[in-house]
Amino acid sequence: MQHSSSNKKILSLLSLLSSGGNAKSNAPALSVIDWPEMTSLIMKKGLAGHFYSMLYQSPIAAALIPADTMEILKNAARRIAAHNVFYETHCAAILKDLSAAGIESILLKGFSYMRDIYGDTSARGLSDIDLLVRPADRIRAHKYLIDNGFSLFVIPSFRGSREDFIRLADILGETHYMKKTGALTASIDLHWKMRAEFPMNNYMDLDKFPWWKNTTTVDIGDARARRLLPEMQFMHLALHFAIRHHYWGLRWFVELFLFLKTFGEKLDWEFIYQTASSSDCRKLLGVCLRLINDSLGDACPASAGWQKFLPGRSLLPGEYSFYKSCLWRDQKSRLAEYVCMPLSPATITGRLKMIYYFLFDAEGVVFWQGAQPKVPKLLHPFYVLYIVARQLLRKRDA
After folding, report:
1. Helices 48-56 and 67-100 sit at what angle, rounded to 10 degrees?
2. How far is CA 312 from CA 89, 238, 279, 283, in A?
3. Contact 210/235 with Cβ under 8 angstroms?
4. How far is it, in rounded angstroms, from Cα 86 to Cα 152?
5. How far is CA 191 from CA 106, 109, 161, 174, in A?
6. Quick check: 297 pLDDT over 90?
7. DSSP letter assigned to residue 209
8. 327-352 pLDDT, tens per residue?
C-alpha cells in the first residue's frame, strides 16, 4: 500500500534544520521546497510552534524562507503560546494544591522537559496535562479535581455504564478529567500506574520500573514540579510512542527525537539497558532508536546505538519495514494498531501470549462492553474478533 510522503517531507526539513550545518550551505535545498504545501503540512501535524521556533533561532535559514510563510507560522506559534499560558496557569495551581495536600505527583511529558528541548514553553502544543500519582493517593487526587470543577470524561464509544467505565479505569491505570473555563477547556490525565494499554497490561508490567526513585524537579510557573530523570523520561517517551501510539504520530516522534538530540550524549545508556531488563522492552526502545536513526540520524548521533537494544533475532522478516510504514502514515490505522500488538514481544512465545491475552483475557471484554451483559468465557475470542471486525469496517466506511 502506498502512503503519502508528507511525513517524509517534514522529517527531511527537520533533518535539514537540525543537522548543525551552515544554513547558507542548505540554501539550495531550502529554496526548492514548496513552502505553501510544507506550511500546510506542518500546521496539520501540530508542529507549527516548533518549526517557527527553530527558524526564529536561525535568522539565516529564516531569511531563505518566504515572508508570508514565516508570518503564517508566527501567528500559529502565538496561538500555541497563548494556549500554553492557560495550561501553565492550571498546571501550577494543581501542582501547588496537590503538594499542599500531601499528594506526591510526577509531571509526565508536556511541560516536564518542554523548555529543555524546545527552548521555551510555547513551541509545543498541549492537549492535556499528564500527572502520575501514587496508587494510594488516587482517590484523594480524584476528589480534589472534582471539587475544583473538573468532571470525569467518559469515552463516547464505550458501551457500558458510567460505573463500568470507572471500573475500566482500574485496567487502564488512568482517568481523564476536563474543565471548561470560558472558551477554553483544561484536560488532565491522572495516572496511578505506568501500565501499557490492553492487551499489554499483563505483559509489559511497567510498574516494576523505578519511576519514583529516579526523579528531579523543574519550575512550572510559580510551582515546583517533580519530573523523571532524563534516562527514565527517554524510556517513558519511547515506550509511549511504541505502545500507545504504535509508531504513528509525527508529533510524538518529533518530541522523542528532540529529547534524544538534546540529552542523548549525556544519557547513561548502560542504566537504560539494565533498567529495561526484558528483551521485549529493549526491543521497543531499539525500534524507536532505529526509526530515529534512519530518519534523522545525522542530526541525532545517539540513535546509532539502536543495535545494542535490537538484535536481529527479535524481529520477524519485514517487521521493521512495517513499523516504518506506520511512521509514514498520514492517517491512523486501526488495523495497523492491532497488528502491532502481537508483534511487540521479542519472542515467539511472547507473541503467542499476547494473542492469548487479546482473545481470552476478560479485561478485553470489559474494555469494550462493560460489565453487563456478560459474555460467556468460551465466547470471549469470538466477541473480541467481532468487535475488531466491526471497528475496522466502521473505519473503512467512514
Report:
1. 110
2. 47, 19, 12, 10
3. no
4. 20
5. 9, 12, 21, 4
6. no
7. S
8. 998 888 888 988 998 899 999 998 99
